[in-house]
Each structure stands twice: as C-alpha cells, then as structure tokens.
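Retro notes, item 3 of 5
We never archived the inputs for the S-adenosylmethionine complex last cycle. Fixing that now. Sequence and ligand:
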Amino acid sequence: MSRRQLELTGLKTGWRCLEVGGGSASLGGWLAEQVGPGGEVTITDIEPRWALPRREQAHVRLLRHDIVRDPLPGDGYDLVHARLVLLHLPERLQVLKRLVGALRPGGWLVLEEFDCSWVPVLAAPDEDAAALFRQVHTALNGLLEASGADPLWGQRALGVMVRTGLVDVMATTYAEAWPGGSTGIALHRHNVDQVACQLVQAGISDRELDRFRILLQDPEFVANSYPLISVRGRRPFEENTP
Ligand SMILES: C[S@@+](CC[C@H](N)C(=O)[O-])C[C@H]1O[C@@H](n2cnc3c(N)ncnc32)[C@H](O)[C@@H]1O
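Structure as it came back at the time:
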C-alpha cells in the first residue's frame, strides 16, 4: 500500500529521498532499490537500531536523528516520506513545516497516518466481547492523547498540508478486516502490552486485559484495521513571497 503511494509521486531513478522515522527501514530499503545507485536515500530515526542490518548500500544513509530537535540532514529532496511518525509528535505542525522546507520546488511530501477513531468491530462472539474491545481501544486512545499524540491526525493531515502551501494534495485511505489471530490485529496486542500498567491506572482491570488478549486470538472476532490515510502533496515550483 505505501509503495503504491510513493509510486504515485512519479518516483524514479536518481531521486534524492528522505525517509523520516524509518523504523526497520523496510520502506527506506525499497526506496533505495527504486532510486538506484545514482540516487540517494537518507533514513532517519531517533532509534535506528532496527534498521542497522540494511545500511550496507553506498547510496543509503542511516542516521540517528531527532526530527523535532536536530538540524535537517539535507535539503532539496525530491521526496520526503514519513509513516506513522507525526501522529506521535506533539510538535507535528512545526515538523511538517520543516519537512516541506526540505523539499526542492516540485518535490513531494508523503505522510501516512492512522485515523485511530474508526475501528468498528465487524464480528464478535458476543456483545460483551465487542464492548470490551471498544473499552480497551478508547483507553488506548486516551493514553495516546495524554502523551501528546493526536489519534485523529490522519484525518487532519490533508488540511494542514494544504494550509502549509503544498499543491496537488491528494489522499488515499486504506483499511482491511483484521480477524483474531492475524498479523494485523497483533498491533493491538503489542500496544496493550507496552502500556499495560497505564491501562490499569486508567481503569481497565488485569482480568479485562487478559480477556482482551484472548479475544485478539479468537478467529470469531474481527475488527476493522485503523484506516491508514496516505496524503501526498508537492511544493509549488513558484512560491508567493510576501
Ligand atoms: C510507529 S513507528 C513507524 C515506523 C515506520 N515509519 C513504519 O511505518 O514502519 C514510529 C517511528 O518513529 C520514530 N520516531 C519517534 N520519534 C521520533 C523523532 N522525534 N525523530 C525521528 N524518529 C522518531 C520511532 O523510533 C519509530 O521508529
């Protein structure tokens, strides 16, 4: 899905790309294949250790880098991409402006973000199970917000990109069913495990968390994935200067 969004920018050999908060660099590595040795891919992350096995190509730079505080690693990029990064950053608006400033005129910014508000239960063994899922999910969103994340950032990103002065701004939204036991639904399991103590403080009992984990393994339970809203826009070739 994300590869398709990047291809829609006209991605081609020789491009210089910045992959922000690249995680394990699965997309950064793919970008490196697309631009070839005549191009350049800079992959940043505040914790780049998950991407270390990928850094052997000469035209790929892997940097430990904080997109909020560190100077940008370059400018004049043909493409800047960040997936599921700005959602978590309280400084997302300033970061977005920095990313736009890192583009060459005509260069593309692609942001891919979840809308964490829309995860309907599509099937459940009983109504209690569906209610439990909604309860834990609401608590997770509350914790996200409390830490400065914006669970609705996915649905705000396009408007902000337009107001930042980007043109040709378009979005595609992707969602799928996540049945219990599937790879996708394991995201909820990881999220719950990482913040189990905070969830208990927020009023979810240990027993409910155990039931929630079991539910995520039940093939009779199906939840919608988070919708991934992929927004792309380009820096204008001519900018109005005040
Ligand atoms: C949800 S993961 C997404 C990883 C990857 N973009 C993907 O979609 O597979 C968020 C990533 O952003 C990184 N990150 C968080 N804060 C950051 C910051 N201030 N500067 C750079 N990277 C950051 C995290 O270390 C993590 O790898």
